[in-house]
Amino acid sequence: MVVLDPQREGINPKAFKKIMDINPKDFVYISCNPKTQVRDIEIFMENGYKVEKYQAFDQFPRSRHVETIALIQKV
Fold first, then answer.
1. Choosing from 20, 28, 32, 38, which is the catalytic residue?
2. Which of 39, 49, 50, 55 has the most beta carbons within 10 angstroms of its beta carbon?
C-alpha cells in the first residue's frame, strides 16, 4: 500500500510514472484540494485502478476547506 498526501497542486505529472512503477494493489490518497485529487484519480483509473472508498472530512470548522481521502485499488 502506498499513502499519498501531495500539496494543493496535486501529484506532479513527472512523479506519476514513478508512482505507477511501484505497482501496488492499494493507494490511500489524502488531499486538501478535491479538485486536483479528482484530476489525479482519473489518471489512476486510466492505469487500471478504481476508487473503492471516498470520504470527505471537515477538519476546519467554520471554513470552506475539507480534507478528502480516497482508497484506490487495482482492478
1. 32
2. 49
Q: Give phi and psi for 67, each to the nearest 5.
A: -100, 140
| H-state helical runs in the chain | 13-22, 34-46
- The answer to whether the pTM exceeds 0.85 is yes
Rounded CA separation 37/70 (Å): 9
How confident is the prediction along the chain (75 residues), in pLDDT tens digits per residue? 999 999 999 999 999 999 999 999 999 999 999 999 999 999 999 999 999 999 999 888 888 888 999 999 999
Alpha carbon distance 56, 67 (integer Å): 6
Per the annotation, the verdict on 35 as an active-site residue is no
